[in-house]
Amino acid sequence: MTENQAMPHIAINAQYIKDLSFENPAAPGSLARVPRNPNIDLSLDLHITRLPEDNFFEVELSIEAKAHNDDHTLFIVDLKYAGVFNIINISDEQLQAVLAIHCPAMIFPFARKIVADVTQDGGFQPLMIDPIDFGALYHKKLSETEN
Description:
Its main location: cytoplasm. It is found in: Cytoplasm. Belongs to the SecB family. InterPro entries: SecB, SecB-like_sf. The radius of gyration is 19 Å and the shape is elongated. Helices cover 32% and strands 39% of the residues. Strands 1-4-3-2 form a four-stranded antiparallel beta sheet. The chain has a single domain (4-146), classed as Roll (Bacterial Protein-export protein SecB). The protein has helices spanning 29-32, 92-121, 134-146, and strands at residues 9-23, 39-50, 56-69, 72-88.
């Protein structure tokens, strides 16, 4: 085995929108009086699937954002964005961390742009989701499962 064959390698073979939904339930009335700072409820989830091909995994980010003001819903956006990753020469001990930290961090900027674009195309200010520390989320989830 040569030195290059043992090098860890992560490649994105594809990235894609699996599902995208945008609801603007109170339009056009909500667009006439959009508040400057609506309340935003944001949730993020991560799904990892081992694919039948050796060393291939699908990493899916699920992002749901709901903007509301008092008792009125302004918009709801629901995005499932995924990537197919080819992961080579990563130990089993490190694989879960790579899949839960590095892979979502690689595709998150694209999902973030889609959310910003669709909210802007829906007539609102673009929703710019703050960067996410997937490492902190992974370690928090690990500590919760250990307790």
